[in-house]
Design brief:
Layout: E1 24-29, E2 35-37, H1 51-55, H2 58-73, H3 81-97, H4 102-114, H5 126-140, H6 145-156, H7 168-178, H8 196-203, E3 204-212, E4 217-224, H9 231-251, E5 255-260, E6 263-264
Parallel strand pairs: 4-5
Antiparallel strand pairs: 1-2, 1-3, 3-4, 5-6
The chain binds fe (ii) ion (FE2) (2 copies).
């Protein structure tokens, strides 16, 4: 039985920063598994209704840490602070680079950070429980009701089983969340031979989401070790997610594309 080896990583830096790629890299995971989000030029900082305020909540921090532990106990991949931060940053980047105003982008960052906190209650319908937990926090932070509505609807609609990209904020969260596939999310005690989700995640050496505002495209760039998992397996388990991403991209006026090892597959 083969187990995930977190030390087994290819050399090199982030896939998306190589020359020759059109568009702007929004962020993703490098081969070392590190989050890499491009700095946001217009991001709003500080204040009551911002990502930083959400990140400063001890209760939310405790819930995200506990939720990650509970999901680990159920055999799910990493859903901790790295995932929360990455989704928040990429969601904000998506909207900023498509020309949305900084406040809308900040709401996407908040929603991205909070989207999985409901796993502290249960995996089932965690989008709904995430929204309820987020509601209490946003109320405490004094966030305007219309802004709260944007965050809550995005959080509550991020799961592929029932979620719909009801707004640009929601679309950005969906794209950021579903793009986060990487070997660094596989637990140390996972069995990549036995579990297709672990195997596919483990095979992904780098993943980056890139936007080309001129061409109106959002491209998920994946580097997959096909000796670990066939590309077909990726689509076998993630087809629903990719359909959701395509619809989310359309909400933003873009086409959604995927490249695997520099080959366009969608
Ligand atoms: Fe989720
Ligand atoms: Fe997530």
């Amino acid at each position: 039985m083969r187990r995930a080896d977190p030390e087994r990583e290819p050399p090199g830096d982030g896939l998306a920063f190589r020359p020759g790629h059109e568009g702007v890299p929004l962020g993703g995971r490098t081969p070392s598994g590190e989050e890499r989000a491009v700095p946001e030029p217009h991001a709003e900082r500080g204040g009551p209704g911002t990502l930083e305020a959400v990140r400063s909540s001890p209760r939310i921090a405790a819930f995200i840490a506990a939720a990650d532990d509970f999901l680990g106990a159920q055999g799910f991949t990493e859903h901790g602070f790295r995932h929360a931060n990455l989704v928040g940053h990429i969601a904000r980047n998506v909207l900023l680079h498509l020309g949305y105003d900084p406040r809308t982008a900040e709401l996407a960052a908040m929603a991205g950070y909070l989207h999985d906190v409901g796993n502290v209650v249960s995996r089932a319908y965690h989008g709904q429980t995430s929204a309820m937990i987020a509601y209490d926090l946003l109320k405490e932070l004094g966030v305007e009701p219309r802004d709260m509505a944007q965050v809550l609807s995005a959080v509550g609609n991020h799961e592929e089983q029932y979620g719909v990209a009801v707004s640009p904020v929601g679309a950005a969260v969906i794209l950021a969340d579903k793009s986060d596939v990487h070997r660094s999310r596989v637990r140390k005690d996972a069995s990549i031979d036995m579990d297709i989700h672990d195997r596919v995640n483990y095979a992904v050496e780098a993943s980056f989401l890139r936007v080309d505002p001129e061409a109106a495209t959002l491209t998920l760039e994946l580097r997959i070790d096909t000796t670990i998992s066939q590309v077909l397996e990726y689509f076998e388990i993630f087809l629903e997610r990719m359909v959701m991403c395509r619809r989310a991209a359309r909400t933003l006026g873009c086409d959604f594309r995927i490249t695997v090892n520099d080959v366009p597959v969608l």
